[in-house]
Structures are given as structure tokens and as C-alpha cells.
Amino acid sequence: MTGKHIPSHADQQRALWLSTISFTLCFAVWTIFSIIGLSIKDELGLSEFEYGLLIATPVLTGSLTRLILGVWTERYGGRLVFSAQMILTGAATFALTYADSYLTFLLAALGVGLAGGSFIIGVAYVSKWYPQARQGTALGVFGMGNVGAAVTKFLAPFVLVAWGWQGVAEIWAAGIAIMGVVFYLLAKDDPDFAARRVEGVAAPSLAEQFAPLKNLQVWRFSLYYFFVFGGFVALALWLPHYLVQVYNVDVRTAGMATAAFSLSASVFRAYGGVLSDRFGARSVMYWTFGFSLLFLFMLSYPPTEYVIRGKDGPISFSTEMDLWPFVATTFALGFFMSLGKAAVFRHIPVYYPNHVGSVGGLVGMIGGLGGFILPIVFGVLLDVTGIWTSAFLLLFLIVLVSLTWMHLSIRAMERQAHGAALDRLPNFPELAEVHDPERTVMPHLIEDWRPEDPQFWAQKGQRIAKRNLWISIPALLLAFAVWMVWSVVVAQLPSIGFAFTQDQLFWLAALPALSGATLRIFYSFMVPIFGGRLWTTLSTGSLLIPAMGIGYAVQNPETPYLIFAVLALLCGLGGGNFASSMANISFFFPRAEKGNAMALNAGLGNLGVSVMQFLVPLVITAGVFGALGGPPQELSDGGRIWMQNAGFIWVPFILASTAAAWIGMNDLTDARASFREQAVIFTRTHNWVMCLLYVGTFGSFIGYSAGFPLLSRLAFPEVDALKYVFLGPLVGALSRAGTGWLSDKVGGGRVTFWVFAGMIASVLGVIWSLQIGSFAGFFAFFMALFFFTGVGNASTFQMIPVIMRKEVTRLAADRDASEQRRQSERESAAIIAFTSAIGGYGGFFIPKAYGTSIGMTGSPLAALWAFLAFYVVCLAVTWAVYTRRGGLLHDIERGRAPAAAIPAE
């Protein structure tokens, strides 16, 4: 605790018990769907998948919000954040009673999920009131609030029988909202926050709060918590269903049995804190993992019949765990999981006293995601294997991996310490820093980076920069492939039994671009905060979610349109990657090579669209993954396709690329910057001008890529256009990768001007071809459009560093040359990323414009005329601002002014 005075015992107790009661109510609300969900399922006639999504939605929201709620608690204080969170959760829970469709229930469930974010608020708040020697016990007592799950399991079934599920929602909503008001009135600001406010000290920046998240140690904690907390939440949701189906008990008996597990996994958390203070977290974690392995082995063993050939004939016997031994075993498992939850969080306030919100938020978020992911995986395993106990086998494997990693980390650290150094090891070795700066160098972080120094570049820099570039390119290629996979999937949905309208299909083609462009706004600022290596790893790994989701959704024609819409939005994760990838690569190369490097990264990354449009039509024609991939779908003409392969085919490549990014990429110290430092670009006029131009180039490329397959099929139904549509994105990607040198040589502004002239002529050609019904002309002029968009994508990005070097020299004339260089590079990277975000919206508006135009006029021509008018505006702006005599780039691109306004160091 870093406060300037020691709080009184009364204040400590007030903070602890108010927080514990609040967390108990929050947890009771967070798990409300485990009881009322069954009634809602029957009322709406939901499928198993829809039911699973409904009960998992609050868990997902509660998990994802933990990181930001932890940061807000550090900035605004636990008293305010905790109170607001409970009041908003109460409103969302009450809104359940007004829901009248599956969609409105899902929306309300998103708000109910805010209850799950309460944990990290309480950890950050309570830890500030206690000294390190007592934090384990205090946080253990607070963690007993998990018993709220048992409260819901005990009480909700009886309230449900008496007043229906609406009565449960109303009572739980009133309870948590009233507690939010009580907490605000009775609680006090924690000592650190109060002292900071009195002294006028600014809250820590996002970069400072997120800095520890780069430590491998933090992610190891997260894996532990994925089991002890995520496994607890998953079982609390899964066990009622399991007990009803396996042991044929009613919902009240299942609720009571699950409550016993939830009780043991909650109330003993305080005891786990005491044990961690007394014996050390290492010992407690060994106990947790060791006994959990034993109990999970018992639970995972399926009912089995044995026949032994004895000397007197066959001897038969069977093994099966009955109901009450099952309840006793889960109770014991919950006990050790509760100890483990306390042990994991025992030393976050000790090792990261100034980052409890961010570190604890990440660990809590990963743990909460376990509660979302595991029930879904439980269902998938049950479908694949047909064995109910497969869920416990999965948990057994997670514990085995966690225990092995923890033990190897401890042994590696102990082998490095000898004599006196061994005596100085922390009391809890598994929580010690993996990278000790006194003994270990972190080779992935580069503090000395001078790409403008010819000697440094030749001897060291070029090799490192190219390695990062060639790891980045396949990661970006996969991101584009997943982002645009709907452009092919959508065109096939009607043929495999999905009765969606044309407008719905165009929406599915457009939604990935909408979410991808929006995510780019946030991704734009992530590399300077998290580091390029970590962010590339995380953003690439996130592609597994939509890739696997598509694979499962397309196998069932009963899958509702809403699910497809959600998966289409999740494909936007791939679109967001472009902004962070381009910002990251721009830091590695000298000014003279930036244009070509970014053209290669973006151009070959854009190639993912073409690769996808070429590969997916091939892989869906064969059972590539055998029985694991699922059965084929029957076509209306009697043929068969494996549409799930459109998603599954990317999974192994995503895994490989994620590993390559973590192992082979680097972080640059010079690239670090807080959001506040980067936000200066919003005051730069040229940022917004370049956004306009990039919408014209990249927005057109990604929009045409998304809409070209469906438009071709609608405009020329007699032509099997899916065989050829991959050529458009291929031409655009290769022209971008192959023409970066042209902009470096003659100037990006001049190239961009002629690009828009070429696009105007090409659109006129497409319009003419549609009017006369010529597929050959339509296809040829679209290929020209794709070519010009690729050239323009490279030229616009080449313009940005040149513009900002000149602007920063003018705006920051009082700074020295090295500071001007760093500032211009930082702003250039931020603008490149932000313009890519705005440009991505073209991928939404172009397919949607096609759909609107066809719906209103019966033809896409109106949309094409609108695109042509926009290109005329872009051409005029390029000339007026940059390339005319007196324009910003006129003299530079003609060699009449220095091309590098800021000298190298």
C-alpha cells in the first residue's frame, strides 16, 4: 500500500465488508441465467446453441470489461466505479423483464454481464486499505463474494416457482441497485486515490498501467486463473444441465447440488488467503493443482463396462460414479479451486502495487473468459465424443499443463540462484519475475534503434527490420483472409439451405468491414502502448474466434440470422489488425525505405483477400478435416460441399503465425507512447485530408473485394463468377506491393492524383458494361479499378511521412532535430493507422450501397455513379492541397525542396 497514512481498523473493515457484500450481490446477478435461463429457453423455444450463447453472454461481458474497469478504478477510485457499475447492472437486469425476443434478451444479458466486472474493482479498491502482510487474508475474504453463485442456486429456484423468472430478475435487480447507492453513501475513497486527489497528482497513463502486461509471468498467472476461476464459473453454469441430463434429477435438486460446489469454491477463498500468507502461494498452488488432478481424473472417468475372461468364464463388472459421490467430489474440487483463486491474487498487489488494476484486470479477464469459453467447448466435446465426462477431461488437461509450467518455471529460477542469491528469492517463487533484469536480458525489446544511421542499418538494423516485416506479412495476410471470408461464404449460403434475403446477404458481406473499420480506430493506438510484438501476437490469435465460429455455424441451416451477424462482426477482428500492423512496421524502416516496406506489408497482406477467394472455393469441395470437420451440406442440385472448411482451413495457419509473432518479433523503445501523446494527430488537418483520400483508395479496394462476388452473381447469373473473383483482390494487392518504389521515386501526391483519374475512367467503363450487359467489359474494367486502388493504397501511405516531416518541422521549430524526427515518426505511424481505420469503412458502405441501390432502383448503377462523384472530389482535393503549384508536396516531389526536412541523428 502506497498511501501516506495507515487507515484505521474501522475504515479497513468498512471497506472490506462493503466490498464483499457488494461482490456477493454482483456474483449472484452474474450467474442468474444458470437458473432463469432454463425457463427462458422453454418460453422462446431456443435451440441448445442459442441457449448456450444466452447464458454465456453475461460471462463474456463480465470478463472483457474487467480490464477497463480495473484501469478506471485506478484512475477514478473504487467508490465511484463500484457504485456506478452496480446501478447500471441493476438497470440491465430489470430490463430483462421487458425483453420479448431472443435479440432483446441478448442485449439485456450484455448489460447483466457488467456484474462480473466487479471483481477487479474490489481487488483494486480493497488492496489499497491493507499492508502487504495482510493483503492475502483481506482479498481472500473479499473473494468469498463468489458465494453469490450459491445464493442464486439456493434461492432463485424457489423464487422462480413462486413468481416466475421475472420475479427473480426484479428482486435481484432491486438488490444490486440499492447496494450501489448504499456503497456510494457509506464507502470512502481509498487512501492512495484520496492522497492523489489532495496533492493534485495526475492519474497514471494507459501506457504506464499496461506496461507490466508484457511480462510472461502475468500470462502464466492468467492460465492459473483460467482454471481456478474460469473453470469454477463454467462448472457453475454447466452442472445444472449436466445433473439433469446424467442423473435425471429435477431443476431444484440440480440447483442445490451445484450450490454445494459453488459454496465450497467460494467461502474457502478467505482460508486460501490465510494459507497463502502463512505458507506461501507456491505451496497453495501445488496443493490446488495436485488435488484437482486427482478429483478431475475421478470425474472424467466415464461409466464403463468391463468383461474379464476368468478360468471359470467371463467376469463382468462396471464402474460409475453415483449422484452423491459426484456431489462430494465436486465439493472437494471446489474447495481446492477456492484456495487457488486466493493464491493467484495473493501477490499481484505486492509485485505490481501500482498496476493492480491493469494486471489484476487482465488476469481476471482471462479467468472470466474461461467461464465463457469452457461451457461452449464442453458442449462441442459432448457433440463430438458423445461422452458427458469429456468436460472434466478437458479441465484435467488444463491443470496438467498449468502444473507443469509452474514447476518448470520454479526449477529454472532455482537453478539460476546459488548461495546468498538463493536466500534472496521471493517467498513465493512461482510469482517471481521470469525476466530478472540482473540476470536475464530481454532480447525482444530493442532500446537502441537508429535506422537513419547507415552503419547501424547495414550491420544490424536491416536484418531485424526485415525479420519483423516478413513475420508481419503472413499474419496480416491471414487477418485479411478471415476479414473478407464472408464475401465467399455469403454467396453460398442460399445454396445450402439458408433462406436469407438479398438485403440480409449484403448486410452480412458489409458487417465485417463495419466492425473492422471501427476496431482499427482502437487498434491504431495499441502498438505504442502494448508493443508491436505482444499486440501482433494477441491480434493474430484472436482470429481463431471467427474462424472456428463460422465452421460450426454453417453446418446447421437452423442457425439464426443473428448468429451469422455476430460472426460477421467478429470477422472484423481481422480488419482491425491492419492498423496496428502498419503502425508497427513503419517504426522499423528508415525514411528512404518506408514507402516500399509499408507497401510490401500492406500489399502482400491485402493478398489475403485473393488467397481466400481462391482457396475457399477449393477446400469446401472436399472433406479436408475428415470426421473432425463435420458432415457435408447437400446442395439443391444434389451435390455436396463442406462449407465449414471456409473457417476451419485458417486455424492451423493462425496458430503457426501467432507463435511466430511471439517468438520472432521485437518491440522498440522509441515506439512507446501514451494515447495522450498520439492523440495530437486529431488536431492535424492533414490527418483528416488523408482519411478522405484513403477512403477513396483502400476503402474502394476492400469494399469492391467484399461486394464483387455477390454483385457478379446478381448482375451475370449465367456466369460462374466465383472462379474468377479472386483475381480482383490479387491485382489490387500485387499492384500495391509492386508500386511502392514508384511513389518513393516520383512522389506519392503525383501518383495519387493520376490514380483517381484512372479510377474515374474505370468506373465509367463498369457502368457502360453493365448497361450493355457485357461480362467481359464488366470484369476488365473492375480489374483496372482494383489495379488503381492498389497503386493508390501505396501512394497515399508514402505521402504521410513526407507530409508530417514538413509539418512537424514547422510546428515544432524550437525542438532539436532528433526530437523532431521522433515526433514526426510517432505522428506518421498514428496517422497511418488512423487513416487505415477510416478507410476501412469503405468495405461497409460499398456493399451496402449496392444493396440499397438494387433495392430502390433494381440496379447497382446508382451506387456506381455515387462512387464516381466521390472520386472526382478526391482528385480535386489531391490537386488543391498537395500537387498544384504552391501545394504542400509540389516542390518536394519535383526536387525543388529537401525531401527530408528533418535530418538524421
From TrEMBL:
One of its GO terms (biological process) is nitrate assimilation. Residues 14-414 form the Major facilitator superfamily (MFS) profile domain. Keywords: Cell inner membrane, Cell membrane, Membrane, Nitrate assimilation, Transmembrane, Transmembrane helix, Transport. InterPro entries: MFS, MFS_dom, MFS_trans_sf, NO3_transporter, NO3_transporter_NarK/NarU-like. GO terms for cellular component: plasma membrane. It comes from the Bacteria. It is found in: Cell inner membrane. GO terms for molecular function: nitrate transmembrane transporter activity; nitrite transmembrane transporter activity; secondary active transmembrane transporter activity. It is a multi-pass membrane protein. Its main location: membrane. The keyword Transport applies. Pfam families: MFS_1. The chain crosses the membrane at residues 15-40, 52-73, 80-99, 105-126, 138-165, 171-187, 223-242, 254-272, 284-303, 323-344, 356-381, 387-408, 469-493, 505-523, 535-555, 561-583, 604-628, 648-668, 688-709, 721-739, 751-770, 776-797, 829-850, 862-882. Belongs to the major facilitator superfamily. Nitrate/nitrite porter (TC 2.A.1.8) family. This is MFS transporter. It comes from Aquamicrobium defluvii. The lineage of its organism: Bacteria, Pseudomonadati, Pseudomonadota, Alphaproteobacteria, Hyphomicrobiales.
